[in-house]
Amino acid sequence: MQWDDMRVFLAVARVESLSRAAPTLRMDAATVGRRIARLERQVGAALFVKSPQGYALTDLGVRMRDHAAEAEASLGLAVEEARGDQIGLSGQIRIGAPDGAANYLLPQVCAAIGADNPGLEIQILALPRVVNLSKREADMALTVSPPQAGRLIVQKVSDYRLHLAAPKGADITTRDDLRGRRVVGYIPDMIFDKELDYLGELGAGGVQLASNSVAVQAMALRAGAGVGIVHDFALPFAPELKRVLIDEVSLTRSFYLVRHASDRTSERLTRFSEALSAGLKAEIARLERQVA
After folding, report:
1. Closest by alpha carbon to 271, among 141, 78, 93?
2. What are phi and psi of 251, to 5 degrees?
3. Fold of 3-82
4. pLDDT tens-digit profile of 124-155?
5. Strands 183-185 and 140-143: what pairing?
6. Are the beta carbons of 122 and 102 closer than 8 angstroms?
7. Nearest to 259 by CA among 42, 76, 117, 8
8. N or C end of the chain: smaller count of CB under 10 Å?
9. What is the pLDDT confidence band of residue 84, given thresholds at 50, 70 and 90?
């Protein structure tokens, strides 16, 4: 069994699809399928259950994925040590994040880190769900709740604030002024973290215009669709909006940076996570000062 076969296996295991794994591997889907079939023959058992929805891991496949991911991490550490100390970071690092952070924070922070490390390739994975680090969907992830399970390293990055926002022409000085106004927010059954459920804080009975993306919500508010909860750090990008009922509707949430425990000894990922955390904290503070 060759490591290159395990590399193909891991790529398919992470995305559960031959066609989605193929571009990453720089192969066509048919070649990826043949490589998986060859690996299963070598193992003597099925590693995937194939269906119209994709390739789901069997129990054996899950165990093999976990061992292969650890081997991949160890190989990465060996490469780091072979390179020795270097001035800048290099290689590819992928960060998973909810789309609020992915849209309004990570581009600036990652651009600054990239400018200091020309050999580094940074990928921002924006998902309306929790990123699965055990499947190695990303090297690290930002979350709004600290995970309670799994072999993970969890570090609090920063608090951030959210307020009720409306178009600048809206006359809203009391809660009574909210009556009859349309509410913009999350699609209720697609809220993937309890910290994103803002309706209780707002006291609204429902959402009349909903999206699973906070960027889409902000654009709807800018178009005059109603009122909604907006990150303070997003407001500098939405000059048509203003905060309303600031003292009555004020939320504080937190970002956490999460890494797989097997990456604890990776100097490269540790250095990147330190730069990322510091950059995020500073950027949140900078943007929030603009609307204070």
Report:
1. 93
2. -120, 145
3. Arc Repressor Mutant, subunit A (1.10.10)
4. 998 767 777 767 788 899 999 888 877 888 99
5. unpaired
6. no
7. 76
8. C
9. very low
- C-alpha 198/C-alpha 266 separation (Å) is 37
pLDDT for residue 36? 92
Q: Which fold has domain 85-157+255-291?
A: D-Maltodextrin-Binding Protein; domain 2 (3.40.190)
- Candidates 193, 185, 183; CA nearest to 254 is 193
In tens, the pLDDT along 228-251 reads: 999 999 999 999 999 999 998 899
Which pair of tokens denotes residue 213? 């993306």
